[in-house]
Design a protein that fits this description.
The complex is a heterodimer of chains A (518) and B (43).
Chain A: H1 3-13, H2 19-30, H3 33-37, H4 39-45, H5 52-77, H6 81-88, H7 93-126, H8 133-141, H9 155-174, H10 176-203, H11 208-216, H12 226-239, H13 246-251, H14 260-293, H15 297-300, H16 304-318, H17 322-356, H18 360-379, H19 384-414, H20 418-428, H21 435-462, H22 470-491, H23 508-517
Chain B: H1 3-29
Chain lengths: 518, 43
């Protein structure tokens, strides 16, 4: 494949200027809020030190193989998620639009959490929450009332949310290399540095050993519980940004001759490496909190919003150099969140560009501005946290997880495209993709994810999620998850522009075969 | 920290961070692709 063809494609669609930039951007996408606030608690709750075994099994049998699948689809077909699926098999475009819909939904609420973290980075300096971090978060800061939908704006959330969106729009307008690539090249090393300093600081706190003891003491009996294995596969799956279009989109911006399997191994292990670092830092800090309050670590351990916005402010108030810890912690959340948010929105922008042959600036504005407005309407009000919690739960469970299982099964058993994709990865790949990969993608990974999906479905049908009113769950939960499927497949009725080829561009492997044949 | 916890922490570090180091070494052995200077015009 000539360099000229690649340069023409890069000028038209955008491209990362090198493998290094792509890897940084992919790590930026994979390392998000979940690495910091989800992994430590999941590990602690599911066997502690023993969790490392199912975690590694999940990484090697589902996470990295699925990452390879996404890379193969995007890198071979050189398009956004809908275009790549359409080029893989006629009629498969809807899977891509389903993923685009999911990304749009996620972008809308993910920005709100980043805005909270921006605010808390500054709150850390003077410990604005006083002696009651929980009351401050829900009362003074979010001004949350009863579950429902209210139109009362909260300026303290609205202003940072606008700032986050302006920053994100600027990155998206700047483009693949000068926006996403440049952001990742600066912010990912900064994130690892800032969090590394935070971990060192946390390790010197009194009680840090107690926290690490709680995290790493193995409970081997847990390994006999299916739920523990499900938690490991779930953590790996949700953490790696796989299965909902991001890695397909990013890999379409990489040079055709790039070693995608070798790059994927680096991205997969970097993501897990950061999670481990986060686990050490978070539990060292929780150990300090437990000791300072004379309680067990089990009484202070938490995850998600509770960990970040309630437990950590408590630690920041009590720890020596607490303000410094706070700035590092919330600053890290902001960076990890931003580099993930841009990847989520890029899935939508890339799809719109491909479908309508729009300019970079035009597509960026056409996607980001409506996304921002919806985000402001729903998440800068007194009911924002409730809507966010519901959408997040259902779009993860019945959006990302469902489309991943469906697409893996269709690609494996419906389109029978795995041999084609394996050949593509093997052409320049340093990790040989053999039969083992096809077995993992067609049987092991879908089976594991289907188990999590079915378990979650039964739970959510039997019990109202977090006790929210049914109308809210139906609208923002089940309704949102169903809407992205319906809208996704409706989008396929819009015709592609005549200049958009539905044929997969000749791959490097095809070119090599042709040269060999001549 | 208990001995069991220390062993599991070191094992996790060895496997995950060691795996990352191996993946980086493996990638550094495969040739990188040429830079696309033209992308600066876009994008």
């Amino acid at each position: 494949m000539s360099e000229q063809v690649h340069h023409e494609e890069a000028k038209t669609r955008g491209a990362f200027s090198s493998r290094r930039v792509f890897i940084f951007a992919a790590i930026g996408s994979a390392v998000g809020l979940g690495n910091i606030w989800r992994f430590p608690y999941v590990a602690y709750e599911n066997g502690g030190g023993a969790f490392i075994l199912p975690y590694l099994v999940a990484l090697l049998t589902a996470g990295i193989p699925f990452l390879f699948l996404d890379y193969a689809i995007g890198h071979r077909n050189r398009g956004s998620a809908p275009l790549s699926f359409a080029r893989l098999r006629g009629g498969a475009e809807g899977l891509g639009w389903w993923q685009v819909g999911i990304c749009f939904m996620i972008a809308v609420y993910y920005a709100a959490v980043i805005a909270w973290a921006v605010r808390y980075t500054f709150f850390s300096i003077d410990k604005a929450w006083g002696s009651d971090p929980e009351g401050f978060f829900f009362g003074d800061f979010l001004q949350a009332g009863d579950p429902g939908v209210q139109a009362n704006l909260v300026p303290g959330v609205l202003i940072p949310l606008v700032i986050v969106w302006v920053a994100v729009i600027a990155v998206m307008v700047a483009g693949v290399q000068k926006g996403i690539g440049a952001l990742s090249l600066v912010f990912i090393p900064l994130l690892f540095l800032a969090f590394g300093v935070l971990v060192v600081q946390a390790l010197f706190l009194d009680g840090a050993g107690q926290g690490l003891d709680a995290l790493f003491t193995p409970d081997w009996g847990a390994l006999s519980e299916p739920g523990v294995w499900g938690a490991a596969f779930g953590q790996i799956f949700f953490s790696l940004s796989i299965g909902f279009g991001i890695m397909i989109t990013y890999s379409s911006y990489v040079h055709r001759d790039t070693d995608m399997s070798g790059s994927g191994a680096v991205v997969g292990f970097s993501n897990s490496g950061f999670e481990l670092l986060a686990g050490i830092g978070v539990f060292a800090a929780l150990g300090f909190m437990a000791q300072a309050n004379g309680v067990e670590v089990s009484e202070v351990a938490s995850d998600g919003i509770g960990l970040a916005f309630i437990a950590f402010p408590t630690i920041i108030s009590e720890a020596p150099a607490g303000a410094f810890i706070g700035v590092l912690f919330f600053g890290s959340l902001v960076i990890a969140g931003l580099t993930s948010l841009v990847s989520v929105i890029e899935v939508v922008i890339s799809a719109v560009r491909d479908k309508f042959e729009m300019s970079r600036v035009g597509a960026s504005l056409a996607v980001s501005v409506p996304c921002m407005l919806i985000s402001l309407v729903f998440f800068s009000t007194t009911s924002g946290i409730f809507v966010l919690d519901i959408v997040d739960h259902f779009i993860n469970q019945f959006g990302i997880l469902l489309v991943a299982v469906v697409s893996m099964l269709l690609i494996s058993w419906g389109f029978r495209a795995l041999p084609l994709l394996a050949d593509h990865l093997n052409h320049n790949g340093s990790v040989h993709i053999g039969t083992w990969w096809r077995v993992l993608i067609s049987v092991v990974a879908p089976a594991a994810l289907a188990y999590i999906l079915i378990e979650g479905f039964i739970t959510d049908v039997e019990t109202a999620y977090e006790g929210y009113p049914q109308w809210m769950l139906l609208t923002f939960g089940w309704g949102a998850a169903a809407a992205v499927v319906v809208l996704g497949f409706l989008a396929t009725t819009i015709p592609w522009r005549s200049e958009t080829s539905m044929e997969a561009p000749p791959s490097a492997a095809d070119a090599a075969d042709t040269r060999g044949g001549n | 920290m208990s001995t069991g916890a220390i062993v599991m922490m070191l094992l996790a570090m060895l496997v995950i961070w060691g795996g990352l180091a191996l993946a980086i070494v493996n990638l550094s052995r495969s040739k990188d692709t040429p830079r696309v200077d033209e992308v600066r015009r876009d994008l």
